[in-house]
Amino acid sequence: MTISRRTFIAAGAAALAAPRWSVAETRIGGLTLQTVSDGNLMLPGDFIFAPVPADVAGPVRAAYGLEGDTLTPPCNVTLLRGEGRVILFDAGSGPAFQPSAGSLLDALEAAGVGPEDVTHVVFTHGHPDHLWGCLDDFDEPVFAEAEHLMGQLEFEYWTDPATVDSIGAERQAFAVGAARRLETIGDRMTFFEDGAEVLPGVTALHTPGHTPGHMSFALSSGGDSALILGDAIGNHHISFAYPGATVGSDQDMAQAAATRLRLFDRLVADDMRLVGFHLPEGGIGRAERSGDGYRFVADA
Ligand SMILES: [Zn+2]
Questions:
Q1: How far, in Å, is the centroid of ligand 1 from the Cα of 192?
Q2: Are 211 and 154 in contact (CB under 8 A)?
Q3: Which of 101, 150, 223, 276 would bridge 93 by S-S if both were Cys, CB 3.0 to 4.6 A apart?
Q4: Measured between alpha carbons, how far is 262 from 267 in angstroms, rounded to an integer?
């Protein structure tokens, strides 16, 4: 066995903590849909709750056990396999974002998938926890055999030199990091627009607000369907209970709230399964009406 640096790090990590890549799995017609864990983020509560009035946020935080200063949302990368394709939706954080995230390669290995097996990497948006895992410690593409796909608008936003100055101080590092990575993998990137069938049975749906060019993906196979949300519905608490509430994790908060309301209407009307990148228990489930809002019900 060759001892690579990654093997070494993985062995050290295993000694510290039990593997944390809980995997949810379901079938969409002829396709196998799984989520594999890239770990979790560590966020100050205000990152999400700052714009939410205290009399709304307080009861929601209490109901969901979120009373501490730190939120630890999971990161679920979607793996879709079938018809000769191994598709990843987003690439995780990689080694450079947060120490609690970046475990995607180990989670894939546990699912029997090596990075060289991945045929397509389809991005929802350009944030660090979704994009930065496309490069390794040496700035080489991790999924070297894969075609990479991103919405045209999202790519243009993050590669526009003006973005770093217009995005605001708190997100400037996102812009610098995205531009550097997209410059490296841009020549292997395929671009698509809203409504495009980016791969057989995978249709892009522009869901702006979290970022300008954020894309969700409707899956359809054999009469079965699901919606890969990315971060268009970015948490299971406030954004389900009060889908119209503006939350601090969205760049254009009002646009994101409007997008969310539209998505919930469609999910409930079509009784459609959803996959959320930061939702609990692997993130595969459904939205159920609850009071004036909704609640997330994970697949059993
Ligand atoms: Zn995210």
A1: 21
A2: yes
A3: 101
A4: 9
Query: What mean pLDDT value characterizes the chain?
Result: 92
The mean pLDDT value for 254-267 works out to: 98
Quick: pLDDT tens for 155-184.
Answer: 999 999 999 999 999 999 999 999 999 999
- The whole-number pLDDT of residue 160 equals 98
Distance 238 CA to ligand 1 centre (A): 16
pLDDT in tens, 28-58: 999 999 999 999 999 999 999 999 999 999 9
Q: Which CATH superfamily is domain 22-298 in?
A: Ribonuclease Z/Hydroxyacylglutathione hydrolase-like (3.60.15.10)
Ligand 1 centre to CA of 43 (Å) is 11
2 alpha carbon – ligand 1 mean position (Å): 33
Distance 11 CA to ligand 1 centre (A): 27
CA of 75 to the centre of ligand 1 (A): 7
Structural domain boundaries of the chain?
22-298
Helix (H, G, I), strand (E, B) or coil at 166: helix
288 CA from centroid of ligand 1 (Å)? 22
Instruction: Tell how far the Cα of 3 is from the centroid of ligand 1, in angstroms.
Output: 32
- pLDDT value for 18: 45
Distance from the alpha carbon of residue 74 to the mean position of ligand 1, in angstroms = 9
pLDDT tens for residues 113-150?
999 999 999 999 999 999 999 999 999 999 999 999 99
Q: pLDDT grade, residue 67 (50/70/90)?
A: confident
DSSP, res 179: H
Q: 118 C-alpha to center of ligand 1: Å? A: 21
